Amino acid sequence: MAAIASFAEAQTPTFFARADYAGGLAYAMVLADFNGDGILDIACVDGGQPQVLLGKGDGTFSPGPSSSGLGPSNINLTAGDLNGDGKVDLVLSDGTGSVQIGFGNGDGTFQPGPVLTDLGAYSITIADVNEDGLPDILLSSPSGLLVFLNQGSGAFGSYNTLLSGSTVYATVVGDVNGDGIADIVAGTGKGAQVLLGTGGGSFQNGQALHLQNAAGSMILADVNGDGKLDLAVTAGAPVLCPSWTKVSVLLGNGDGTFSAHANVSIPEGAYGVQVGDINGDGRPDLVILQNSAYPVSVAFNLGGGTFARPISYPAASLAGGFGIGPLRKPGLTDIVVAGYFLCPFVSVLLNEGKGTFEDGIRIPMSTPPGPFAAADFNDDGLTDLAVLTSTGVSIYQNSGKGYGPFTVVGTYTLTSPSFIVTADFNKDGHPDLAVSLSGGGIAILLGQGNGQFAAPVTLSSGAVSMIALGDFNEDGNVDIVATSNQIFFGKGDGTFAAPQPLLAGTFFTNNTLAWLTPVYGNLKNNRYLDLAVLAKSYAYDHFYTLINNGKGAFHLGAVNGDYELAPAELAVADFNGDGLPDLLLSGGVYEYVMLGNGDGTFKYGTPVVSTLSGSNIMTGDFNGDGKADFAATTGGNIGVTLGNGDGTFQNPFFVGTDPGTGFLQYVELEKTPTGRQFGFVTSTGDGIDISLQLTK
Q1: Cα angle 675-681-687, degrees, rounded to a multiple of 5
Q2: How many Å is the Cα radius of gyration of the chain?
Q3: How far apart are CA 284 and CA 156, in angstroms?
Q4: Tens-place pLDDT, residues 527-572
Q5: Contact call for residues 327 and 40 (beta carbons, < 8 A)
Q6: Does 348 score more than 80 pLDDT?
Q7: Hey, how many other C-beta atoms are within 10 angstroms of the C-beta on 426?
Q8: CA 695 to CA 484: how far, in whole Å?
Q9: I need a surface site. Which of 155, 156, 224, 681 has the fewest CB within 10 A?
Q10: Nearest alpha-carbon partner for 245 in 273, 267, 271, 272
Q11: Alpha-carbon distance 73 to 518, whole Å?
Q12: How far is CA 196 from CA 139, 173, 208, 408, in A?
């Protein structure tokens, strides 16, 4: 997992939202204090060396140092002090035939220890099973439960096999019959088997538990407060059994047997469970990993071993592992989720108390929203939203503080809306709306200053995917440019002149205009507002500049060459502080900065590996240092990349959102007597997310 770089506290803004950390495809993760500072850290494996994020004690993390020599393809791990030196060690498995011990150095790094032969470990458990005070290693494998007894100083002999010939997926250790000797519950393909300890590392078969399916994740805890260990069990990540749609809770009888008691329904499929007091009421709750875009849920303990309906939270989806624990000192029980497959992030959900988590503000919507415009539509000093839907535009009025709540105060029907912008077209001091229509036309909605708009008036045009605004002929009125290769000159009264070709000639006959951005600045030693555009020719996107001759007439700028990564979007800012506008192009894994030469041409800057296939890029100064930054959505979060002011950038940090992120803006949400409140606003698969900025 490639972790993010650390930043100075004064430079990195923080947001009221879940924090995500970029990483590899985390197969598994564990929480422990790896550098001895009393703060929980995160260790993940992604098929290679373990990667560590060091906790700062406030719920945030910075990348730890690297380790090497710990096996080539690790997919599982757990942590414990195996050699008694007071430093946390790791046990790692490649899942096929090798288990590697990594002895902790006490600084977040590990040195290679013994390699244990195994028969393909599904999971690893560390526990003292022979009462000698030394932690032993239990490996769940296709050939049974392999027990490696600790011989002291982290040395292990050959293994003993329990449940030989059975496939064991998971193991949990505890005293289930109250005799002071460690017992084992082993998850098998037929359910689970209780193994009662007889002392000295020996066990005898106890109760066989018949469950819905193979038990791949289990936890022992007293969930009903009777002093006896109970069992919560579900399918585990090694078997990924989506058909297991519940967490089964079995109450312990105190004699090594369990009685079926309750099932917590997880319709998406549950494959991991842990127990902790999430809402601070003294009762252990269930934290469940599930097969969902909202991969973690919490079922609160109602007492007596019964649980409320689970509440799901967004995090890194298709999670490969998770953990719970206090990440702040003193702190509540927080949740960490490691993404897997197409979501290479580690999500940190900070508990705000009473079982709620720091996760931004959401405006739920019944259908996925499109682009939106942000402005104060009712003159109350608060930012409202005009959000495109499949059938038109809805006005969400901010009825509280700068971050909501938001209520719908009007809807306007439009056919095939594709993009929306806002400006004062008729100079009455109230923001108006312009909406492009993919089937043809641009709808103008004049604001009345009370959150309401006049009936839409449509300007005739070709099919339009995107529009942009500016005073291109310097008459003091707002004009509209459109991807239909047209410019509409504003008259200053809310009406527009008949459209003119944006670029004369046949250039856009063979090149479809796909994206356009006004360039404020001296693009070619003139004072006029120019344009940067993306045009599609066949299957490739290229970028061009359109130079304003004055009076809103444009000509094609110097040829900038083909952009090798086929950019999908572009944005403009002065990234190197030379007073000239630069271009930021997004495509594939990279964002490219094209540094302006001042004559309408550009040179390649350093590619920025920033937001992992980010889209909806935008620029701004997010930390108040006077240097241009940029942000982009990445599917389930917002990647924020801070500029150094010389055309280079820091590594990004990530602000968590709901899944399905789309359109993105950085807006002023509220003006207060003590300052201005900013934040990111983004559309998601089920509404609008607001990530309120807490610091500059």
Answers
A1: 140
A2: 29
A3: 35
A4: 788 888 887 765 556 778 888 888 888 988 765 554 455 667 888 9
A5: yes
A6: yes
A7: 19
A8: 41
A9: 155
A10: 267
A11: 48
A12: 17, 10, 12, 61
How far is residue 324's CA from residue 588's CA, in Å, rounded to a whole number?
A: 34
Q: What is the pTM of this model?
A: 0.82
| CB count in 10 Å sphere of residue 315 | 31
Please give the Cα distance from 9 to 55 (Å, whole number).
Answer: 14
Cα–Cα distance measured from residue 345 to residue 51, given in angstroms and rounded to the nearest whole number: 13
Distance of CA 84 to the CA centre of its chain: 37
Label the pairing between strands 183-188 and 123-127. Answer: unpaired
| Closest CA relative to residue 613, chosen from 336, 419, 388, 345 | 345
Backbone angles phi, psi at 455, to 5 degrees: -60, 145
Nearest CA to 226 out of 303, 333, 309 is that of: 303
Neighbours of 158 (CB within 10 A): 9
- Please tell me the distance from the alpha carbon of residue 37 to that of residue 87, in angstroms, as a whole number: 11
pLDDT of residue 693: 84
Residue 213 has phi, psi (to 5 degrees) of -160, -170
Question: What are the residues facing 161 on neighbouring strands?
Answer: 146
H helix runs in 164-316, sequence order: none
- Centre a 10 Å sphere on the Cβ of residue 72 and count the other Cβ atoms it contains: 11
Q: Which of 442, 555, 576 has its CA nearest to residue 503?
A: 555
3-state secondary structure 427-492: CCCCCEEEEEECCCCEEEECECCCCCECCCEEECCCCCCCEEEECCCCCCCCEEEECCCEEECECC
Give ∠ CA 659-390-419 in degrees, rounded to 5.
Answer: 85
Alpha carbons 435 and 441: distance in angstroms, whole number: 9
Task: Please state, in angstroms and rounded to a whole number, the distance separating the CA atoms of residues 70 and 124.
Answer: 16
Mean of pLDDT values over 415-424: 96
Q: Does pLDDT of 673 surpass 70?
A: no
414 half-sphere exposure, CB direction, 13 A CA radius = 32
The DSSP H or E segment spanning 572 is strand 569-573
Closest CA to 648 of 570, 572, 571, 584: 584
Cα(533)–Cα(324) distance, rounded to whole angstroms?
Answer: 47
Q: Angle CA(250)–CA(254)–CA(259) in degrees, nearest 5?
A: 25
Q: Note the pLDDT of residue 660.
A: 83
CA distances from 419 to 9, 330, 387, 441 (A): 37, 47, 10, 11
